[in-house]
Design goal:
Order of helices and strands of chain A: HHHHHHHHHHHHHH
Number of domains of chain A: 2
Number of domains of chain B: 2
Distance between the termini of chain A: 62 Å
Oligomer: heterodimer
Strand content of chain B: 25-35%
Strand order of the largest sheet of chain B: 6-7-8-3-9-10
Number of strands of chain A: 0
Helix content of chain A: 55-70%
Number of strands of chain B: 18
Strand content of chain A: under 5%
Number of helices of chain B: 10
Distance between the termini of chain B: 40 Å
Structural class of chain A: mainly alpha
Structural class of chain B: alpha+beta
CATH topology of the largest domain in chain A: MetI-like fold
CATH topology of the largest domain in chain B: Rossmann fold
């Protein structure tokens, strides 16, 4: 019998193939993400919870435990309830507007027309422009004196100079302004979500519905929309989470004004906790986001699971 | 139920004529198969009939009425798609009921009809499932039930069996055919599979490059192909075509036999050199060349396997073969059937 190879005599070092073991490699690869979440999300969250239960201010950095006293004081403040209400209006108003615009835009972009590719690329711009630049541009459009919108409407003869609205000076219009800006930022994302969803619906299903007698509206609302609902729900979760916690537009455009009409949770928490230095109350205000976001996320995830069955 | 009639239907996509003037009459209750290679325009033609595509020119009549400008939902035809197009978010019951909902049929009536259609196809026990919980064969039956539930004027099927495995396919073929015979519904069935076409069609329309090459019963299509395309598209292996003076001569492989196996005197003899043979169990396919005749493809002969097993046909040798004259088909230089044969 021919000898094919000498028998291996040298013992293989025990750790030589350690990275071939799935559980070891998995642990190593996932560790940075876990560390990141623990250190930069988990720890600050716990810290915020503790601050909210203490009397910590930057002038008196005490760790004295005060129980739920901060929350009680906040809830008794009528301005805070307005802030809470504003946050909901801002979030759901802009998401709704964004979704409607997104669906509309997606349908337009599905139609073939010359230059469609360029438009598809351009439509993503509001999403890509830094929020500070975009908000400053909008500030000019809503300015009390130089408003481009008012100028256009006056020039078109729709309004007279006296009737021109003071966009950022009127509490309702100011809220409308931040809703519009946020919807404008969100709708390209909504378009992408809708486009991805709609193009994933098999053509056979849409054709079958057409032959089965469904017109445009029935096809959209009984076939396409239910089928893309899971992906739209995911998009909406992101939208709600980001908007609910957002303070940049309010901070840059209205500073919560006029008279607290556009103050939202993130902005109020920032003003109280950082600007005024009352860290304990600021943390307590911010923590009001937590139950709301938790409910939204649980609701959405359950909804998605149900749809998939 | 109604007859479907098309007059010179043309469909142009940009520069390309997908459908190039198809005139076809499908009488009431007939099972018509549109057979052709992929890209021949048969599916486009079917989509024109149901209204998913608008023809560039030509007339379409369903039940004697011109329906050129009538939207799909008002044509009353049902269509079953290659991947069935079931609505994944609806239960089987709601899938079947959908065409009735769009017609605003009263609730009790819908319930009755869904029961009826599901009984007819034996899917009564699946009504509360969703499409993803069904097997391929069950999905197909649900799609068929959905197509039938509103008692369409005509049933259009676009390669409905191509998603099934081979075994299921032959039983589904039987099922669709039996079913069609029972309800006598005008049916137009698109396929590229000649076995489906031959086995199911009352008549077959062979289509190539957007044109009908021949319409006829399966026997007519097989026995007497109108041109070289039909001759070589239908049949496996296809008809042998050899150049013969100012035209072509065609004969089926099963008619090309050793001389001593042909009893008739009225036969034409050829000298055949066998190059290769394949044993397929029920038959033996022999490939070779014919002395004095040119052919683009190797000449094939389909022999009973026992014959070759005896060793009388050996590769590399010339053998006397023959075709009885009644089985010879003549084609002119353009590939069309010549009158004499």
């Amino acid at each position: 019998m021919a000898v094919i190879a000498e028998p291996v005599v040298k013992p293989v070092p025990r750790f030589r193939f350690i990275l071939d073991r799935r559980e070891v490699l998995e642990t190593i690869l996932v560790a940075p993400a876990i560390l990141y979440v623990l250190l930069l999300v988990g720890l600050p969250l716990l810290l915020a919870v503790y601050y909210s239960l203490s009397a910590y201010t930057i002038y008196n950095p005490t760790w004295k435990f005060v129980g739920l006293a901060n929350f009680e004081q906040i809830l008794q403040n009528p301005t805070f309830l307005d802030t809470l209400r504003n946050t909901f209006i801002f979030t759901f108003g802009s998401q709704l507007l964004g979704l409607v615009l997104g669906k509309f835009g997606a349908f337009l972009l599905l139609q073939p027309f010359p230059g469609r590719k360029i438009v598809r690329a351009l439509i993503i711009l509001p999403f890509a422009v830094p929020v500070a630049l975009a908000t400053i541009a909008w500030q000019w459009m809503f300015d009390s004196l130089y408003s481009v919108i008012n100028w256009t409407m006056i020039a078109a003869g729709i309004l007279t100079r006296d009737e021109a609205p003071n966009w950022l000076g009127n509490p309702y219009l100011a809220m409308l302004c931040i809703v519009i800006i946020n919807a404008w930022r969100f709708f390209p994302f909504a378009i992408v979500i809708f486009l991805a969803g709609i193009t994933a619906v098999p053509q056979d299903v849409i054709d079958a519905a057409t032959v089965d007698g469904a017109g445009f509206w029935r096809r959209n609302y009984q076939i396409i929309l239910p089928m893309i609902l899971p992906i739209v729900a995911i998009g909406l979760i992101f939208g709600i989470v980001f908007t609910f916690t957002d303070l940049s537009i309010v901070f840059l455009l209205t500073m919560g004004g006029p008279g607290g009409a556009t103050s939202v949770l993130g902005f109020a928490g920032f003003q109280t906790g950082i600007v005024s230095g009352d860290v304990a109350h600021g943390a307590a205000i911010s923590l009001f986001m937590l139950p709301v976001l938790l409910v939204v996320v649980i609701f959405m995830l359950r909804f998605i699971r149900r749809r998939e069955i | 139920m109604a007859a479907v009639l098309t007059r010179d239907i043309v469909k142009r996509f940009g520069e390309i004529n997908a459908v190039n003037g198809i005139s076809l009459r499908v009488p009431d209750g007939e099972f018509m198969v549109l057979l052709g290679p992929s890209g021949c325009g048969k599916t486009t033609f079917l989509r024109i009939i149901c209204g998913l595509e608008q023809q560039t020119s030509g007339d379409l009549l369903i039940g004697g009425n011109v329906v050129n400008d009538i939207p799909p939902r008002a044509r009353g035809v049902a269509m079953m798609f290659q991947s069935y197009g079931l609505y994944p978010h609806y239960t089987v019951r709601n899938n079947i009921a959908f065409p009735l909902h769009t017609q605003r049929v009263p609730r009790e009536e819908i319930q009755k009809k869904v029961e009826w259609a599901s009984q007819l196809l034996g899917i009564g026990h699946l009504l509360d499932r969703r499409p993803r919980q069904l097997s391929g064969g069950e999905r197909q039956r649900v799609a068929l039930a959905r197509a039938l539930v509103r008692e369409p004027t005509a049933l259009l099927l676009d390669e409905p069996l191509s998603n099934l495995d081979a075994k299921l396919r032959s039983s589904a073929r039987q099922e669709i055919k039996n079913f069609q015979q029972r309800v006598r519904l005008t049916t137009i069935y698109v396929t590229h599979d000649q076995v489906e076409a031959m086995g199911m069609g009352d008549r077959i329309a062979v289509i190539d490059h957007g044109r009908i090459r021949q319409v006829g019963t399966p026997t007519e299509i097989y026995e007497d192909p109108a041109d070289l395309f039909v001759a070589t598209f239908v049949g496996a292996p296809p008809m042998n075509i050899v150049t013969n003076g100012g035209g072509y001569l065609g004969f089926r492989p099963e008619n090309f036999l050793p001389r001593d196996m042909i009893a008739e005197d009225a036969a034409t003899e050829f000298s055949f050199r066998v190059d290769r043979s394949e044993y397929l169990g029920s038959e033996r396919i022999v490939y070779g060349v014919m002395d004095g005749f040119d052919s683009k493809q190797p000449i094939t002969a389909k022999l009973p396997p026992a014959h070759v097993a005896e060793g009388s046909i050996r590769p590399g040798e010339w053998h006397p073969f023959a075709v009885k004259n009644s089985a010879l088909r003549h084609y002119d230089t353009n590939g069309n059937r010549s009158s004499h044969h």
